[in-house]
Amino acid sequence: MGTIYVTIKVNDEMRQDGANAISVSGLTKYYNGLAAVNDINLDVKGGEIFGFLGPNGAGKTTTIRVLTGLSQPSAGTAQVLGCDIRTGITFAKKEFGVVPEASNLYEELTALGNLVFMAQLYGVPRDQRIKRAEELLKAFGLFEKKDAGFNTLSRGMKRALTIAAALLHKPRLLFLDEPTVGLDVVNAHSLRSLIQELNDQGVTIFLTTHYLDEADLLCDRIAILVQGRVVALDTPDNLKQMVKLEPACEVRFVSMPEEAISELGRQHGVYRAEELGDNVRLYGESMAFLTEAIFNYGRQKGLEIAFIGSVEPTLEDAFVRLTGMSREAMLVEKGGK
Amino acid sequence: MWRDSLRSIYYIAVKDMETYYLKPPAVSWGIVFPIAWILAFYLRNPQDFRELVPGLIAMTVLFSATAVEAVVINLELRLGSLERLLLAPISLSAVLLGKIVGGVLFGLMMTAVVTASSVLIFELQVNIIHLALILIPSLLVFSSLGALLCVLVREVFEAQTLLNLPRFVMIFLCGVVYPVSAMPPALRHFAYVLPLTYTVEGVQQSLGSVQSGNIIKDILVLLAFIPVFVFPAAKLLARKFA
Predict the structure, then answer these.
(1) Pick from A137, A247, A314, B199: most CB atoms within 10 A?
(2) Are A39 and A229 in contact (CB under 8 A)?
(3) Contacts for A81-87: CB closer than 8 Å, 24+ residues apart
(4) Per-residue pLDDT tens digits for A205-242
(5) Is 50 exceeded by the pLDDT of residue A10?
(6) pLDDT tens across B65-123, in order?
(7) Nearest chain B Cα to A109, which residue?
(8) Of all residues in chain B, what percent are helix, strand and coil, respectively (each to 5)?
(9) How many Cβ atoms sit within 10 Å of the Cβ of residue A306?
(10) Which of A94, A102, A109 is nearest residue B89 as measured by Cβ atoms?
(11) Chain-centre distance of CA A227, in angstroms?
(12) Cα diameter, chain A
């Protein structure tokens, strides 16, 4: 992917002096008497990639809608790029871009037509609109498709064009709502590279995602949202440390007996065992107890070990712990989105 | 800020013209339907056709200004593209006005074609300034009315159905085919609550079809209808993004 941006000096300054791109205090949003977003407090520093994670219905999209002026908050305050969202959001919109969850450009317009129209709305000078649109089409590998209707593009191309539309006015802050949902592995990988590249060029990123590995890979800090409330906010490493209290390891035998999980769970020094794909994960008092229990069990049953390894906590572990979701429910959510 | 809003209104209107209005369904609804309707009356009584011309022009104003508002508002709301507009640095009112102005521009084109054809065919005398002063507020009124009715409902078909109600009520009660003066008193009073009555009266005066009447009153009444429709429409649209 070519260079798609210019270095944003303002954001570099924000990064250096620690200024906040977004400041949220007590933000609350009710729908039909229910709090979709409940007393959120957070700051997003200039120049960082900030992840906003949570299960379906946690309030991620509602928060983005409120911060971008699509919905009014019921209570609390927020400033985006120094502008109050109640009074100055139209000014702030000149400085931020939004990539909504749905690729909602105009089906009837061509790829170039959509970008030029957005450039018109954002006040990009007349003599620069087509040039800027074509630059972005080239950077996103869509130049060959510039005269193709939006409705004829593949899902990945639509997503790329939607992101390009959010970059026309060279925003300092980019809101990305589930940007890789529905993309194949290759497109999702390109998009993550693009997000990183934009951030390297100075753009502050506010990212919601279902994919925890994506958040782990990209984000400087992550807030975890459950039922409208922020239950944790820290760096990915620190969030992982929260669950690194219980030693765990995983084992896979060449031939796994059905009763292995329950029997391993009853071994001395093992607190519990759970199935994780082809492996069994054991939690226990110490790694020494766990490995001893596994080797003893294997010897007793005459089982050959195919794999054994200690388990480092992942962001998913932290997420499961903090949200109280089961891993099965997480898999359903990942597949369902 | 107002310059940003004006720019956005213009570009939204132009985009809607290109993508929705200048397409066969909109053109047929905006121009063919009124002509077919008037032809039906002509076949019944060919001698009075010249008298039907103001009604034909008024009906073209009504139908063309509201031709595809259900699509430009309700479909865009459903697809999320209207929400996309609101992510740009423009106000919700500017987006709504852009949609209304799109209807006005299309209506102006359709009405100009019908008016010019009628004037040439029937060799009518026309006061162009009076006609423009009646047609432009009329187009704004009916486009605003269309926008209001569209934001009252969710789906395109609901909006289309709802739009037909005032269209057909106004065709029969506003002097398009039957003179208001010939109507029973109750209906006559009701006719003067409807904006198309003032459009028909104003067009009649502009074409010299009637000598009496007060075109200034017609223009002022039409102008007064615009905020009556625009403000509630803006309020209702804002509620959809509450």
Answers:
(1) B199
(2) yes
(3) A81/A21, A81/A22, A81/A172, A81/A173
(4) 999 987 888 899 999 999 999 989 999 999 998 888 87
(5) no
(6) 998 888 899 999 998 889 999 999 999 999 999 999 999 999 999 999 999 988 898 88
(7) B19
(8) 85, 0, 15
(9) 13
(10) A94
(11) 17
(12) 79
Give the span between the Cα atoms of B116 and B120, in whole angstroms: 6
Q: A with B: how many residue pairs have Cβ under 8 Å apart?
A: 58
Q: When comparing pLDDT for B153 and B210, which is higher?
A: B153
Query: How close is the nearest chain B Cα to the Cα of A165, in Å?
Result: 10
Distance, in Å, from the CA atom of A177 to the CA atom of A209, rounded to the nearest integer, reads: 7
At B171 the three-state DSSP class reads helix
- The backbone torsions φ and ψ at residue A264, rounded to the nearest 5 degrees and listed phi first, read -65, -35
**Chain A positions in Cβ-Cβ contact with residue B83 (cut-off 8 Å):** 70, 100, 104
- Residues of chain B in contact with residue A71, where contact means CB-CB under 8 angstroms, are 241-242
Q: Which residues of A touch B91 (CB under 8 A)?
A: 90
pTM comes to: 0.82
- Residue B1 pLDDT: 72
User: For the segment B201-219, what is each residue's pLDDT rounded down to a tens digit?
Assistant: 999 999 987 777 789 999 9
For residue B181, give both structure tokens: 């003066």
Task: Name the strand (E) or helix (H) holding B172.
Answer: helix B156-173
